[in-house]
C-alpha cells in the first residue's frame, strides 16, 4: 500500500516536472524579448528540476542514490538562479536595447502576437553598433 502511494507521488512529480519543462520551452519560443525568455527558462527550469529530482528521490528509497540525487538537487537549486542572474547582468552591462513596446492600437489591431523572428530582427536593427 505504501509502495503504491510512493509510486503515485513520484509519478505525479515526474509528470509535473516534465510539464513545467515543456512550458519553459514554449516560453522560450513565444516570449518577445531576451529578458522574458530568460525568466521563463530560469523559473520553470528550477521548478521542473526540483520536481523531477524529487520524484526520482522518492523512487530511490533510502540508498546512496538518494544522497547523490539530493546533492545534485542542492547544486542545481543554487546554480540555476545564479546563472540566470549572470545572463541578465551581462545583457544589462552590454547595453542591449529592447524594442519599444507597442500597444494593441499601435499594432493596427493585430490579434496575433509578434513572432520571435520579427523581434530578433528588430532588436538586431537597434543594436547594429554592437559586434
UniProtKB/TrEMBL annotation:
Residue segments, region Disordered: 102-131
Feature: compositional bias, Low complexity: 110-125
GO cellular component: membrane
Gene Ontology molecular function: any one: sodium:proton antiporter activity
Stored Pfam families: PhaG_MnhG_YufB
InterPro entries in UniProt: PhaG_MnhG_YufB
UniProt keyword annotations, A-Z: Membrane, Transmembrane, Transmembrane helix
Transmembrane segments annotated in the record for this chain: 6-29, 41-63, 69-88
Keyword Iron set for record: no
NCBIfam families hit by this protein: CPA3_mnhG_phaG
Name of the molecule in the record: Multisubunit sodium/proton antiporter, MrpG subunit (TC 2.A.63.1)
Organism this protein belongs to: Microbulbifer donghaiensis
Amino acid at each position: 500500500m505504501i509502495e503504491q502511494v510512493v509510486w503515485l507521488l513520484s509519478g505525479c512529480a515526474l509528470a509535473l516536472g516534465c510539464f513545467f519543462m515543456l512550458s519553459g520551452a514554449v516560453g522560450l519560443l513565444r516570449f518577445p524579448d531576451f529578458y522574458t525568455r530568460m525568466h521563463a527558462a530560469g523559473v520553470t527550469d528550477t521548478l521542473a528540476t526540483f520536481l523531477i529530482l524529487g520524484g526520482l528521490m522518492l523512487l530511490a528509497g533510502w540508498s546512496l542514490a538518494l544522497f547523490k540525487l539530493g546533492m545534485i538537487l542542492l547544486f542545481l537549486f543554487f546554480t540555476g538562479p545564479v546563472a540566470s542572474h549572470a545572463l541578465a547582468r551581462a545583457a544589462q552591462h552590454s547595453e542591449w536595447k529592447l524594442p519599444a513596446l507597442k500597444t494593441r492600437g499601435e499594432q493596427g489591431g493585430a490579434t496575433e502576437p509578434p513572432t520571435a523572428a520579427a523581434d530578433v530582427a528588430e532588436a538586431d536593427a537597434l543594436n547594429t553598433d554592437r559586434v
